[in-house]
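lol ok so funny story. i was supposed to be doing the assay writeup but got distracted and ended up predicting the structure for this chain instead. priorities right. anyway since i did it might as well share w the group, maybe its usefull for someone
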Amino acid sequence: MNPHAVPPASLQGMFRSLWVHRQLIARMSQREIIGRYRGSTLGLVWSFLTPLFMLAIYTFVFSVVFKARWGTGEESRTEFAVILFAGLVVHALFAEVINRAPGLVLDNVNYVKKVVFPLEILPVIQLVAATFHGLVSVVVLLVAKFFLTGSVPVTAVFFPIVILPLLILIMGLSWGLASLGVFARDVGQTIGLITSVMLFMSPVFFPIQSLPDFLQPWMQLNPLTFIIEQMREVLVWGRQPQWFGLLVYGLLALAVAWLGFAWFQKTRKGFADVL
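and the output, tada:
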């Protein structure tokens, strides 16, 4: 890599960077995943035990203590925990990457100053690691669905198509926030508050249909709302997703990804001056 070359900021340059550095991304993502559990006795087993334990807690609290139902009349009380967990998986994936994005460059100053390193892959590495843990949670969800209902929806095969647009959106936002976090250190604190608000402003704990009609369009402005609903369609209800909606969401997410990548590439030369 030529350190004096102008970093590519085009859409083609974004895909080319991801492809050229795919092996480095894979190795560093693996290190990130394994490093989270380094020193523990069970190691990667915790990535399975943690969502399993959380799902068990949700099942007990909402099914036994609160005797909650989703409100559609189609599900048992125990299924409420699975429905809830499907929404929490989406938010957890989003929040884990977005909350860490503003500090990515700040936490890797040595890559900025000492060596020639493709800084643009840092958010991608975090996204891959978070996606791995999200996939483990989805496996736990499907196992719970099987034990509760005796079957897993065939439409679960559409899950990768449903989650892909969100991953693209997260990647774009992460590039933008990673750059902003260098120049404005308060961004990290602000983002934590925003993602917390988004948890309660998305249909994680309640169906969007339970809101008054005039509030439902505002809830749809939350980028998590559509994906959470489509996740439940394919993983819980056994229905096909809204294909046209996913296409539109995917195109918008791609535009955000390109803008985030372009912003990151345009501002990266100033990182060393600030750090």
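The chain has one domain: 26-270. Residues 122-149 form the longest helix (28 residues).
back to the writeup now i swear
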